[in-house]
């Protein structure tokens, strides 16, 4: 079991688009195991490689009765229905806020052996797949919060014991339909 430290808000790796994985080798399998062990030990629903400081496109997930990992995932939103719900992040520890996400999604990618994988989910699994795919694109769930909630979140972050004083960068929410 290898439990790694998790990069916190402010680390540039969390705001950088991760690179595609081209080698499905032992190094990737070790990374997937490290992601899994760290996610499970820290009590997360998912964990993306950038959160361990590794800028490649892979994440693990274990929520709502589903568990696995996706390498180089692509995400499709299924329908227009959205959901509001509490969302947190291991890179923004001990804090969560109401966040709007799409209710149904489908993700396609590969497993650590290079075999195709497809995962469809709704509710919590859909939220998790969106959250982790966002990490691979340098997007944090703070970017998805409505303006009022985001302002409150930033105040709470600045008051958190782990906050290092670096002003958090917030990107424009790419879900224009949520505005």
TrEMBL record:
> What GO annotations for molecular function exist for this entry?
metal ion binding; peptide deformylase activity
Q: Which family does it belong to?
A: Belongs to the polypeptide deformylase family.
Record keyword Metal-binding present: yes
Which protein is depicted?
Peptide deformylase
Going by the UniProt record, its keywords in alphabetical order are:
Hydrolase, Iron, Metal-binding, Protein biosynthesis
Needs which cofactor? Fe(2+)
EC number from the UniProt entry:
3.5.1.88
Question: Where exactly are the transmembrane stretches of this chain?
Answer: none
Instruction: Enumerate the CDD domains for this protein.
Output: Pep_deformylase (cd00487)
Task: State the free-text cofactor note.
Answer: Binds 1 Fe(2+) ion.
